[in-house]
Specification:
The structure is a homotetramer.
Chain A lengths: L4 E7 L5 H13 L2 E7 L4 H10 L11 H10 L6 E5 L5 H10 L3 E4 L7 H14 L3 E3 L7 H11 L6 E9 L11 H7 L2 H4 L4 H17 L3 E9 L10 E8 L4 E7 L10 E6 L3 E5 L5 E5 L5 E5 L7 H4 L12 H21 L12 H19 L5 E2 L3
Parallel strand pairs in A: 1-2, 1-3, 3-4, 4-5, 6-9
Antiparallel strand pairs in A: 6-10, 7-8, 7-14, 8-9, 10-11, 11-12, 12-13
Chain lengths: ~375, ~375, ~375, ~375
């Protein structure tokens, strides 16, 4: 059997939710094993994590630069790195690993500016490394099913999109949602954007993935609702796609009672697709006759390109970790294919740096629109 | 017992859905009886309807002018008129009855321009007639409950509103939805607006009723999506209220699978209210702790001002006709109170001409915003 | 136009929920008008109600016997009587009107014993009067749609039925649910049965109507759960139909949070039907492939025999009163057809005395099963 | 950090769904690592699986007897074995490992007869080994929450339970659901029971876990519905608990459209709990006032003893693998505690051999009841 793919991690130290989540997601299928890392800027904390994770102490590095250098020099060095640090540090870290010729999986948003993201895109192409951006929700079988249905013309031409991602965790005055909320709400560390950077990029990516449409322009209103906050916590965006279709994107951190309520409704000329990430085992397809069809993961109606990611029969619920595991499944398959020379571009079934760049282009266009009084702004490519 | 209130109708002839619906809604409680009418511009058709409805042939009139004149002259003349003609004719008809001193119940939107609506408002005040605009959905017990909860501060200060009313009946090319769709899509008869006039006014009124907030300004995009159509069939509106709260209103006639999917989600500083008109027996209240509470009509948690409109115990579903019946219940109570001198303004528990005017102000501001490239436009008073 | 059918009422005096509900339901379509009645055993109260209802005082009678006699003697006498008294009195009252040749609409259960119900059946046949038993829930468009789908073989042969009707209104010790709860829980006035008589007959009738199957035998456990109560308040019944299919019927008055939660799930060899009376605008049909299809009242997929009862377009919710109105619509159509000689048996689209008899047969078989230690008991015809 | 617990597996070879699922579930948290196994009765197939799983070839054994013997003799031998073979072989395999002093995790039902299960219970006690039976659904945070709420008296005294587990995968004639369906429907390999053994034990265990009640007696009807089948595929059971509460259990493999639709509704004297395993992130709690409260995993209302098993914040859905992982988390904690001497019985937070025995007692009582014409049968202890 193929050996497990070796990977390292930057970030994911004590108290980090997202680093632990990536490790768990990768562990489910066992296609990769963690062998190196810089888990914290504090060497002490990094060491503690490395020990807990049974990492060879030699491969617990003092800095990501050291890790990139030494791992790229080893015969048995890591084949990809997972970058799960706060957003503002993604750029430098990713750059270092790309330059070292190491494939990268980076949490979203990939950087905090369009220019840096685009630079990583060019660099990755130049160096020939694979670059995944972990828009986790797109790993669900039902997300891929929605994408396939629309691509297959099941709902005709897309006409309008209602996409939203409300949360409620920052609804209360004085509440900064702990460590994570802190840097998210800090302009210096977040690129001048909070809610729209975190949630808006998910919405943008989900709509783009489902519909296959490119954004042409946006008109955004980004509000700071909770007293005492500096950055946006409730965002309303009108969008227009290149084919003339339109959409409304709404993201919020003040919607009490909402968790990760990413919801897409795509209305086409021949039908409608409804999808809700908190009920990810189900896709609703409305045919031209208006009758509403609920299709469960595991059923025959699911397209093969989506169905193949299911691990369990219908009724055995799969969740968020499994969705992320699906991204890593395609990513490690591509890495293995690159090694044995069988890789082709159409094997890529995960969000790439291209998706990452589009996310930043979206955010920056929104920031400009908001600054200029909610006017239409073209989205860069 | 109080005699039944006598009423007449203009419109509601053969094939009219809405006139029949008003008659049925009024009949449920039996507080009023239909005694006069001009049911169609065709005297033939009008007569047929009058006969079916057991109306005295003498009181089946040739024109609304004649009806207003003769009924106001009778000892036993009608005490209110129900106006259920196409929108463009509301103004002249309502005006005639107000001038004759007869109370008016008019379907929404009350007219097709702000100026005419405002004129009716002034005239009604001058003549001292009661003027109801039948925003039916606001008659539901749960609508009134939502209004009371927010007024009582249950969800704190309103911060943002998500309100939408998608339908799918005009989604198909070449499909004008029969007679009704025809005039709705005809600029000459609709005031230059289709979807936003029909559905947007419902959304605007529902949001205003629930929150008690006044609109300050709007930014609207009104699209013509289905090829071959002239007027808007998909509308996206950003709104701002006078207290600084914001909202998104979406209306559509191209959302396949949607019926009358008027849905309101109101997010406050201490909680959230969710309401969906197609499931009108339920209101969802989310408290500050984020737990989601579903409250059914008929339960003790419902506020007295809302609960009193329930006719049946919980579990015996009430629907749209009952909601309209509730509007007429308050309207006829007020008419009776005026007769016996006990009427006070706070008895009014139905949408009035004031709501009607606000609807037109909203529509006109949207039209201007859309014409000028989706810019902010102040809403008149 | 056909004159309105004249009707009278026995029961439905001050404080009666069900009498008022029948009157409102009939009023919606206006096919019949109330002209006579005995609204209470107290002549005082009866008179008050008659006045409120604008009944000619002469036709407010002192007893049902007098009413049957005098109305049958009048040229313009009532054409049907609505019997909405407590269950134990149905038999005598219905008998009197049948003998007077007057059509009968009686609330369910039609009597409190199989023998009396069967006697009414024979008598009605002999006298040639129409006899409706108002199992209201079977008036919903979606109930009729379910019946049609199964009759058309859409789900193949019925294999098993899960039917239930839990309520919570009598869950609390010391709580007898007011006046209505009082007689329901009193053995002397209820035929020795409470919950199963009230709710079980609905379940039995709904299952029979949907599936078209006849009960062969039952095995029942009827429990008295709440301390201080004498009659059953939670009932569990295993059933077997003549074709060998099986079912579970559950009824309860102690299920906190349940209102009128009549729910049917019918599993066939080729599909499944799900129906819930508190969401009566929707029927769920699961095809052989397991995908779940939600069909709304008002859509083209609804069978013509069901669709014709809709008054309002899809999305304008219809409820319980409308369902009851549908029963009266067919009933009055049949009465009119009898008058003009066009009546045929296949016009009957409402529950009849035959359904009433089956209900009592079911209840008595359950009582015997429970008394004998939960053994199988054949159901009479 | 504590070393990972070493485990082996019997079963789980090529094409086995359940063995792979156990491995993935254990991998999520990484508390244990697979080091030995007999993955198939075919040595060839076993070897292939061992290689895929990176198992030392020496520790891929020819028989479970050999594995028990050799692993118990090693210094670094396995600390627990996972038994995921067809049900009929559980007894012999579990016995061998218990006798070798190795802790056991066995899939449910633990054996195919009460006597063998009880024997394992005694043997495990005697040998002092921990014995987990993997009733996966009880690993959900919301299952533990339901258990805690009821134990804390939140819904008062339990009065009646509605529990069901319908599936549709064996609804079609000639369809035996592949390899797994084959042995399930074969009397020789299934203990004379199919649906009730597979699904009924889940229902029984879930009801027992939630309510804490012991079964007193059952009355069962076990039907063979699909032509050509030998064993039960649709089962209806009335149950009575020792405290006098009652319940209905329904299991089916012919309910088209159902996946793993395990649903519990528990009605108490002060409230109600609703839980559905296909929506396992939510628990519904109905208070005495009848209002319906939906509580999400991750919220403050969840009891600490349940909340501690959550890995991800609310809104990041956890599913079936995570639920099974939760069982293994407690199991490995107990194993570690046994090693360091800190183990106490109240640490056990997973289903044990006692639950396994109760499952078989339930099945055997049902079989006897069904054989004797659906009569009450006492349940053994």
């Amino acid at each position: 059997m193929a050996e497990r793919v070796r990977y390292g991690m930057v970030g994911g130290g004590p108290g980090s939710f997202i680093g632990d989540a990536h490790r768990k997601a990768i562990a489910i299928d066992g296609n990769a094993e963690l062998v190196a890392g810089v888990f914290s800027r504090s060497p002490e904390k990094s060491k503690v994590t490395a020990e807990l994770l049974h990492i060879d102490p030699e491969r617990c590095y003092g800095s990501y630069q050291e890790m990139a250098e030494k791992e790229s020099a080893r015969e048995d060095g890591i084949e990809f790195v997972v970058v799960v640090t706060p957003n503002f540090s993604h750029y430098e870290i990713c750059k270092a690993f790309i330059e070292a010729g190491i494939n990268v999986a980076c949490d979203k948003p990939v950087t905090i500016s369009y220019d840096t993201a685009a630079e990583l895109r060019e660099l990755a192409a130049e160096k020939g490394v694979l670059f995944m951006v972990t828009y986790t929700y797109m790993g669900h079988v039902t997300s891929k099913f929605a994408r396939d249905l629309i691509a297959n013309g099941e709902i005709g031409e897309v006409r309008t999109v209602m996409a939203e991602y409300p949360q409620g965790w920052l609804a209360h005055e004085g509440d900064f949602g702990g460590k994570q909320g802190e840097w998210r709400c800090d302009p210096a560390r977040s690129g001048g954007v909070n809610c729209l950077g975190d949630l808006g990029t998910h919405v943008e990516n989900a709509a783009a993935t489902f519909t296959g449409l490119k954004l042409k322009r946006v008109l955004a209103r980004m509000d700071v609702v909770v007293p005492g906050r500096v950055l946006d916590d409730n965002d309303q965006v009108l969008v227009e796609y290149e084919n003339g279709a339109t959409g409304i994107y709404w993201t919020s951190q003040i919607a009490i009672g909402c968790d990760n309520s990413l919801r897409l409704r795509v209305y086409g000329s021949k039908g409608t697709i409804l999808w809700f990430q908190e009920n990810p085992e189900v896709l609703t397809l409305i045919d031209n006759d208006g009758n509403i069809k609920e299709i469960h993961r595991g059923y025959g109606a699911v397209t093969p390109g989506a169905a193949k990611y299911g691990r369990l029969p219908a009724g055995h619920t799969e969740g968020w970790l499994e969705a992320m595991g699906n991204l890593y499944r395609s990513f490690t398959e591509c890495i293995n294919a690159k090694k044995d020379g069988s890789f082709t571009a159409d094997m890529v079934d995960y969000p790439t740096i291209e998706d990452g760049v589009e996310g930043l282009a979206f955010v920056e266009a929104c920031l400009e629109s908001n600054k200029n009084g909610n006017v239409w702004v073209e989205v860069k490519r």
